[in-house]
Design goal:
Length: about 150
């Protein structure tokens, strides 16, 4: 009888160890493939600042637009101080995880700037920081899609 009791104890102990070992098993988490960031469309200024001073109420940004198409072209509508002053091509440094965007005006040289593409309030925004001409003036534009 003692022997049967000890066998049951060993069986229960082994079962308990097996249960604990399988419950602690770590499953591999597969990386998620990030989608390609599509910035095509018409973008307007939501906020603008120069050297930390809010320009949104001081300058009429109502007519200014940046139009990006899926082929890598951009068009400026009613230009204001911006990274470039004429239409051309754009390119993201990484289509899945962009941190920089390069604007190449037609017949000109590429100008790369810091680029953020966050979701705020359920909508994508473009945050662009640049210095057009004078390096003492830094502009930050927050654009939203129309």
């Amino acid at each position: 009888m003692k022997r049967i009791f000890k066998q049951k104890q060993h069986f229960l102990l082994l079962t308990l160890i097996a249960l604990i070992w399988t419950s602690c098993k770590v499953d591999k988490v597969l990386p998620v493939n990030e989608s390609v960031k599509d910035i095509s469309g018409n973008w307007k200024v939501l906020k603008a600042s120069r050297n930390g001073t809010d320009l949104t109420t001081l300058v009429d940004f109502g007519q200014f637009r940046v139009k990006f198409d899926a082929q890598g072209n951009y068009t400026l509508v009613n230009p204001l101080p911006f990274v470039v002053n004429q239409d051309g091509n754009y390119k993201l440094d990484d289509p899945n995880y962009p941190f920089k965007i390069a604007f190449t005006p037609t017949g000109g040289q590429a100008v790369g700037i810091v680029f953020n593409y966050p979701i705020v309030g359920g909508a994508r925004q473009l945050n662009l920081t640049f210095s057009p001409g004078c390096s003492l003036n830094t502009y930050t534009y927050t654009l939203v899609k129309e």
